[in-house]
Amino acid sequence: MPSITGTPTNFELHTENEWYPAHIEDILDGDDYGYGPTIKWVFALDNEERETWGMTSQSASPRSKAYKWIKGLRGTGIAEGETIKLETFIGWRCAVMFEHKGEGEDLRDRVVNVKRLTDKPDLTPSSTDSKDAPF
Q: In the chain, what are the domain boundaries?
C-alpha cells in the first residue's frame, strides 16, 4: 500500500503586486480542469530553489491570461491567425508578479503577470533556415 509523508510548508509567500526576477525554465501542456486545455509555465526565480509555476488557458483571446503574458514577454499581442511557438520563450529573462489566493492553511501564491526583464533575444531567422522562425 502506498504512503505519503507531509512536508513542512515553512516558506514565505511572495509580496503581492511586486515583480520578482526570473527566467522561464519550461513551458508544458497542462491538464484540462474542465475549462479546456492549459499551459504550465515553469519559472526559476532568482535566489530561490523551489519550483514556481503558473497556469494559463490555451486561449489566444486578448482577454486571456496567456495573451497578457505573451504580450508582456514580446511587447506585442498576438495577431489574428498568428501562431506562437511557446518553446521560443524558454530561457528568457522575465519578471513575475504574484497575488495571494485562498485563506488560512490554503493561502498560497499565484502568478498573475509576466513581463520581459531584458531585451528579447534576436529572433531573426537565418537565411538558411527560416522554418524555425518563432513567430
A: 26-94
